[in-house]
Design a protein that fits this description.
The complex is a heterodimer of chains A (279) and B (250). Chain A is an alpha+beta fold. Chain A has helices spanning 48-53, 84-98, 107-127, 136-148, 248-256; strands at residues 10-12, 18-21, 28-35, 38-45, 59-65, 69-77, 151-160, 168-175, 179-184, 187-190, 203-204, 215-221, 227-232, 267-274. In chain A, a hairpin with a 2-residue loop joins strand 3 (28-35) and strand 4 (38-45). In chain B, 32% of the residues lie in helices and 19% in strands. In chain B, the strands form 4 sheets. In chain B, strands 1, 6, 7, 8, 9, 12 and 13 form a 7-stranded mixed sheet that branches. A two-stranded antiparallel ribbon of chain B has the order 2-3. A two-stranded antiparallel sheet of chain B has the order 4-5. The two termini of chain B are 19 Å apart. The chains are: A alpha+beta (279), B alpha/beta (250).
């Protein structure tokens, strides 16, 4: 696994479209991209355990932005399911592709999409092979997990950026305990209170395991104003108590997790912020 | 005390099993020897730890385990504390053979020694757990003083937990018809067995994080439940061993 220092973060200021898809097998330091009044920061790291074993992380993050829209996804594979890394990636890739078109608000249609992703993931799981050198008990357990399917918690979003004479729109969809925090000049608003995370909600390659429908939020984005949105996986829960907006140091410290001797869980973060004018 | 530190490769959970192998473990429950029911439940707990320790295709050693069987002597079945990866590589657990007596104080003393050796290096780890399974009155010294000493030991995550699985048909007024709807033994539960009362004094309160894990398995123990289970059926013996492996993991 390629290891790099968190302190080597870099910034890009050009106005080229942004496309970032996390690599699950390596640390990706805090990176910034700026376009007009919009700034995007993102980072990714497998847990300390995964790094030491050379295993991929089970988070997946991706963002794509241009002059008109921003679309993003952050998925946290469930480690007690089978190959959470695979589930998080296939779900994230499909959602990001789907968000190329402005999404609607019909939850039943959205659920149909998620079921189609489940079916594709279930087919993909069958093609994954177990290593030959596993002890029989580990093999048995992994086969049992595979029967139960792969699972992930997720948030995805679509921003139609406001322009002269036209307000923008923020659209968010989520399931599970991904942190979703919004702020503006008046302070912060959390779509999920810190003590109300639903860890039992999740997407699954077996749709009958998913439980309830995902949650949907839409909001208007005015052209003028400052604010932002940050989403991160529970591997960065040390950020829960930090006031927004976060400093670069806040992010780097959380990702280094020096106080706890390294990240206990995979960690991914994606932040979109705008100042002086909406994105 | 939070009992929230997650078991990980860097901060593994330590679980010490104390298994009574006195002659009465040959008695039959639900058509099988008590010893065989315990063996299966312990094997299932090990399997559960493997389940909770696999990430991707790999087994990360999130648990460390010692298994002490006791009668008038204490038998260290694994030859010390072993990682769950080492235990998984064994293929199966060593067999349990019933002996004569039931000197539980000796077993707790050995658990105390293991904890004294291990705790200095476990300051960032989940609080250790001692899971004691017995089916009757102890012989030898009273185990309560050493159990109380153990419950005063600890790490920043919390004091050492002691769980008791008491195989007995008489500790409660009546059998538990639906284990999944049962709230558990609390400080107020009336017990009909003096030894059960002793074991209650040796049982830790069930931490909220453990309770949540058991809720996910559809066992609805109450917030004031103790880590004590009357193993009057194979299912409750199994729940007791599941409880022992309910350390939080990610």
């Amino acid at each position: 696994m390629k290891m790099s220092s968190w302190r080597t973060s870099h910034e890009s200021y050009d106005s080229e479209p942004l496309v970032w898809r996390s690599r699950q097998d390596r640390i990706q330091p805090v990176t910034s991209w700026r376009n007009r009044n919009l700034t995007c920061r993102y980072a990714y790291s497998p847990s300390a355990d995964s790094c030491s074993l050379g295993e991929p992380g089970q988070d997946y993050g991706a963002v794509a932005a241009d002059e008109q829209t921003v679309r993003f996804v952050l998925c946290d594979g469930v480690s007690l399911s089978y190959r959470g890394d695979f589930g998080a990636r296939i779900l994230g890739e499909q959602l990001l592709r789907w968000l190329q078109e402005p999404p609607g608000t019909d939850l039943n249609q959205i659920q149909e999409l998620l079921v189609r992703v489940s079916q594709e993931a279930a087919k993909g799981l069958k093609r994954l092979h177990l290593p030959d050198d596993l002890p029989p008990l580990v093999r048995e357990v992994l086969l049992e997990k595979r029967k139960q399917g792969t699972e992930a918690m997720f948030v995805c979003g679509h921003i139609s950026r406001p322009r002269q004479g036209r307000a923008g729109r923020l659209w968010l969809l989520w399931q599970g305990d991904i942190r979703i925090r919004l702020w503006n000049e008046d302070g912060e608003s959390r779509l999920i209170p810190a003590n109300k995370f639903q860890t039992s909600e999740r997407w699954s390659s077996r749709p009958e395991n998913s439980g309830m429908l995902p949650h949907l939020y839409t909001g208007r984005l005015d052209r003028l104003g400052s604010g932002g949105l940050i989403v991160y996986s529970d591997g960065l829960q040390t950020l829960d108590m930090k006031e927004l907006p976060l400093s670069g140091r806040d992010l780097e410290q959380a990702l280094q997790a020096e106080q706890s001797g390294g990240l206990q869980d995979d960690a991914s973060v994606l932040e979109l912020s705008w100042s002086g004018a909406a994105p | 005390m939070t009992y929230t530190v997650q078991a990980s490769q860097r901060t593994p959970a330590l679980i010490i099993y104390l298994i009574d192998i006195s002659a009465s473990m040959n008695m039959v429950m639900e058509g099988r020897r008590r010893m065989d029911i315990v063996y299966d439940a312990l094997s299932m707990a090990i399997r559960q730890m493997v389940f909770r320790s696999t990430k991707g295709n790999r087994l990360t050693p999130r648990y460390r385990v010692a298994i002490l069987a006791y009668s008038d002597e204490v038998y260290d079945l694994l030859g010390g504390v072993k990682g769950i990866d080492e235990i998984a590589a064994l293929g199966m657990l060593p067999q349990l053979s019933p002996k004569r007596f039931s000197d539980s104080a000796k077993a707790f003393l050995q658990a105390e020694k293991i904890l004294q050796d291990e705790l200095p290096d476990m300051q960032d780890c989940p609080s250790p757990l001692v899971c004691h399974m017995t089916d009757g009155v102890y012989t030898g010294e009273d185990p309560l003083p050493v159990a109380q000493r153990i419950m005063e030991m600890g790490v920043p995550d919390g004091k050492v937990l002691i769980e008791n699985i008491f195989i007995s048909d008489h500790v409660l007024e009546s059998p538990i018809p639906e284990p999944r709807r049962w709230g558990g033994i609390t400080r107020q539960t009336r017990l009909y067995d003096a030894h059960g009362e002793k074991l209650r004094q040796m049982s830790s309160p069930l931490p909220a994080t453990y309770r949540e894990m058991l809720l996910e398995a559809d066992y609805q123990l109450s917030p004031d439940a103790l880590m004590m289970l009357p193993g009057n059926c194979a299912e409750l013996v199994s729940v007791g061993f599941q409880m022992s492996a309910a350390t939080p993991v990610r």
